[in-house]
Structure formats: structure tokens, C-alpha cells
Amino acid sequence: MANLKTLYQDLLRSFTASNADLKKCGALLTQLKLGLIENGLLLPSGDRNLDDLAVARDILEIGAFWSIRTKDVPSFDRYFSQLQTFYTDFGSVLPPSAREYPIRGLNLIRLLTQNRIADFHATLESLPLRADAIADNPYISHPVNLERWLMEGSYSKVWNARAEAPAEEYRYFVDSLMGTIRNEIASCEEAAYDSLPMKDAATLLFFKSQSEVVNFATSRGWSVDLNNSTINFQKKGEEKIEIPKEKLIQADLLYARELEQIV
């Protein structure tokens, strides 16, 4: 356990540095998780030393934040799942963690990005918070507001929420939400317009620069007219179905002759 705490202190220094070395943090986390497994602390049960549990929880919480900073959502999912034992089974005996609700909030936004609305509400209801306390908790109220604005179609509020994120890691998931929203808006534009001025398209899609609009348009297969600063949407023509008229006529005549023979 002594070696585990030494590695933990090294991780803490590396992660909280002004210019965190994420690669080093990843290597330390790998070693630390092996150490947690060896000491029975990755998924603890029964009577355990509270100091050891607090260290194990802190390691996994740093791992959850590290996952978002490295844009590894499956890794975040694993860390969050492992933290549930500490938050649920040992939550009443361990001292409160300042990282717990930021991580719970990140998990709620993750569910929104995956359009898992039922899971979002189930997870929200399972939080050990009163309804009035949710509004006072910036880490939980932020995803709650995002979900409401998404249901209302208030996409501008979702966009503005990026600047109001209670933690830097939240912006990663808000950006992911905006990617989904942009594609929905783009599908509506394709159906409603033949073309749009580039400036209007940028406003509708929440882009700040022409290059962002051009890159997005290219990914959607739109035609960009830089001379006139317009975007032309590629209309999908109605599928033409070739009807084999001669074969149908021959088949009908054959069918009619067979009917005459039967009669």
C-alpha cells in the first residue's frame, strides 16, 4: 500500500499541475489501478480502512476527469461505474468528495449526448439530493437545464451554456451535443431551402467563422459558392422506378388467355 500512495502522490502532482502531463497521468493511472486490484480496493467490500478507501476513490475520480480530457468516453464510463461502490456503499462513512457531483453531472450530460433520456431521468432521480437542492448545485443544474432546453428546441441556450459550464470538462460534452444539434438543423435546412447565404447558414448552425461553415458544408456534401458567399444544398431527386411495361403487358395477355382456357 505504501508504493500505491507514492504513485498516488505523483499522480496528484502531475494532474493538478498548471500544464498537466496527460500521457504521464495515463501511465500512472494504469499502474495505480493494478495496485488497487492487488489490494482489493478497485471494487471494495466489507470493512476497509477509510483512508485507503478515500485514496482509491480519489484515484478513480482523477481517472474519470483524465478520460474526458483525453476524449475517451468509454474510459469515463468505466471509471464512473467503478466509483459507484464508493458513492453508494461507502458514501455514508467516507468524507464528502469535492469531485463527486462534478463527475455525476458529467455522467448526466454523457447520457444526453447519447440521447438516453430515460436513463438521464432515472439517474437524476437516484441522486442523493432533494429536488430544491438540485437547483442550487451548479454541477447538476447545468445538465438539467440542458435537457430542458433540448426538449424545448432552445438550441441557442444550449450553445450559450458552453460558456456557463461549471467545469472545463463539461464543455467537451456540450460540444458533442452541439454536433448532434447542428446535424439536425442541417437536415432541416436541406429540406427547406435550395440555397442560403453563408452568413445565414453560419448563424443557424452556431458557427463563428466562414472556414467552419465551409468545412461543415463539405462534410455534408453541400456545394459552396465562395464568389457569391452562398451554400447550395444538394437535393436528392425522387427515385425513378423503371416499370417494365412490355413485360407486364405480355404477362397480362398470357394470364387472360389462361383464364379463357379455364372458362
From TrEMBL:
Pfam family name, one: CSN8_PSD8_EIF3K
Domain PCI intervals: 74-250
A Gene Ontology term for the protein's cellular component: proteasome regulatory particle, lid subcomplex
Keyword Phosphoprotein listed: no
Keywords: Proteasome
InterPro entries: 26S_Psome_Rpn12 (IPR006746), CSN8_PSD8_EIF3K (IPR033464), PCI_dom (IPR000717)
Family: Belongs to the proteasome subunit S14 family.
Name under which the protein is recorded: COP9 signalosome
Listed GO biological process terms: proteasome-mediated ubiquitin-dependent protein catabolic process
